[in-house]
Amino acid sequence: MTQINTPQDPQRRSLLIGLGAGGLAVVGMTLVPRAVLANPEDVKMAIEERIGDAATMDGRISLELPQIAENGNTVPIAFEVDSPMTESDYVKVVHIFAEQNPLPDVASFYFTPRSGKARASTRMRMLKTQNIVAVAEMSDGSVYMAKTEVKVTIGGCGG
To answer: What is the pTM of this model?
Structure first.
């Protein structure tokens, strides 16, 4: 016997294939784990990758961050490192790290004595309340670190 295809058969097949693919996508999204967030140990390891086993000291870095960020999509961040910025004493690089973002490395800012000041500002995305860490490498090999917590709120609720 011969089967006759009607115009509805291809449409029905496309509909069933589309529903099946949509169902697989929904099931697949529930099985895939959420993005893994960095933690303080990941930040510590990232810092060690950048500076090796150099000891860090407090001081010389001023971090400017809001205590409460109402919108985690655009959190302003600025820093300044107290340095004369001379040929013999200057800031080489400042690294910024975030303890609860998917990747701990946020940015690195490079300076020379000709920079005049070791200061920069930018905006970053923050997923949730966390510590922001700044590490400054100086020309003499010394390393300074500063840490500030930023509370991220979403729709007025604490994060």
So the answer is: 0.74
